[in-house]
Specification:
This protein is an all-alpha fold and 117 residues long. Helices cover 53% and strands 0% of the residues. The protein has a single domain, classed as Orthogonal Bundle (Cytochrome Bc1 Complex, Chain D, domain 2), CATH 1.10.760.10. The radius of gyration is 13 Å and the shape is globular. This is Cytochrome c.
Length: 117
């Protein structure tokens, strides 16, 4: 039972991370493309990752219980990463009630901009 719960938690974190990486890649070229939310400081976004995603996706984004998120921005847009974080999927829980929209967008953009581990 603990393994199943841990697997779900890990999957949720992976999805959150993937969505965040996707969001980070879109519109991260320095221009504000009509974002409704101010950008979060990088240190705050990293703390969000550590608190919500690290257990499943690992310190270096290499995965574990959740999928590898290294270079996720090359596979998914920041918007898709944010959607994954918000809604969850497969084994990843939804973070809609845990994270604000600004936190989700910040995390997604950050993830999308991360190079490989």
């Amino acid at each position: 039972m603990k393994t199943r719960r841990r697997r779900k938690k890990t999957t949720a974190c992976a999805l959150l991370l993937a969505v965040s990486l996707l969001a980070a890649g879109c519109g991260s070229a320095g221009s504000d493309q009509g974002d409704d939310h101010p950008a979060l400081p990088a240190g705050e976004v990293e703390k969000l990752y550590q608190a919500n995603c690290l257990a499943c996706h690992g310190q270096d984004l290499a995965g574990g219980v959740g999928p590898n998120l290294q270079q996720v921005g090359q596979r998914l847009t920041a918007a898709r990463i944010a959607e994954q974080i918000t809604s969850g999927g497969k084994q990843m829980p939804a973070f809609k009630k845990r994270l604000t929209e600004a936190e989700t967008e910040g995390l997604a953009k950050w993830l999308a901009s991360q190079p490989d581990g």
